Amino acid sequence: MKILENNICRIEYSSTLQEIAEATLKLLEKKIPEYEMYFDIKIEEKIKINYFDDLQEFRNFINNLRNNNSLPEYAKGTYDNDMVNCYIEKESQMERVYTASHELFHILYQKYILEKNNIDRVVWLDEGMAQLMSGEKEKLQDEEEFRKFYINAKKQTKTIPELGSLIHGQQFCNEKYNGYYLSYIAVRYLLEIIGKEELKKIISNAEKIKEYGNKIVIKSFNYYDKKYCNDDSFSDEINYLENLDFDSDSITLKGKK
Ligand SMILES: [Zn+2]
User: Fold this and answer.
1) From the CA of 70, how far away is ligand 1's center (Å)?
2) Which pTM was predicted?
3) C-alpha–C-alpha distance, residues 131 and 109, integer Å
4) How far is the CA of 121 from the centre of ligand 1 (A)?
5) How far apart are CA 150 and CA 156, in angstroms?
6) Ligand 1 center to residue 223 CA distance, Å?
7) Residue 166 — very low, low, confident or very high, per pLDDT cuts 50/70/90?
8) Domains in the chain with CATH codes
């Protein structure tokens, strides 16, 4: 493994991954101060990143750290032991530049906010915020790009899950919905309706996370349907859900009632 480091992070990487290693160092020089400001923290220790160009080597590394085989099949990045660990395909390495800033968001959120306030991780909020803050969805700042993203994500959603109770693994991403897309839409929706400051308060408040997380997908779909496409294909479900108690299981579209 080769090493690239400066005073804030240290990257260990397979020699074929030089390009992404250099780009990551540059991105994190920008992101780390942003995160410090956002969480109101000062990071004392160096951020450690491990990039593997071999999938099996990556999986062995993680399973070794965990002492088990709990790594999901689809996982290409983790933040075990407060390190960013990734398998990177060398041919398309630059597509993964934002993975490190995404995982780093999870690390800092867990360590400085959740653990300090004794709050359990809520996956949709953590994943949504990581996508929002990491820079990976920068393109979607453009309204028209986001509209296209939303319509596509909705099309792929066959079942509307209750995001508040979802955990990672099969439940979060499957052929019926993509939990990452839905989480991003949910956080983006919150950002639009309550603003940046209130959203910042929510992430460290378990009660509010629960309150805002109730039926978050259906609420955000409702909001963006009105805003973008006048498409009311979920309107039956919305009416139905309006009359339901919270914490119902996931609702399968079409065919329920
Ligand atoms: Zn993530």
Assistant:
1) 16
2) 0.84
3) 13
4) 12
5) 10
6) 25
7) confident
8) 2-114 (3.30.2010), 123-252 (no CATH)
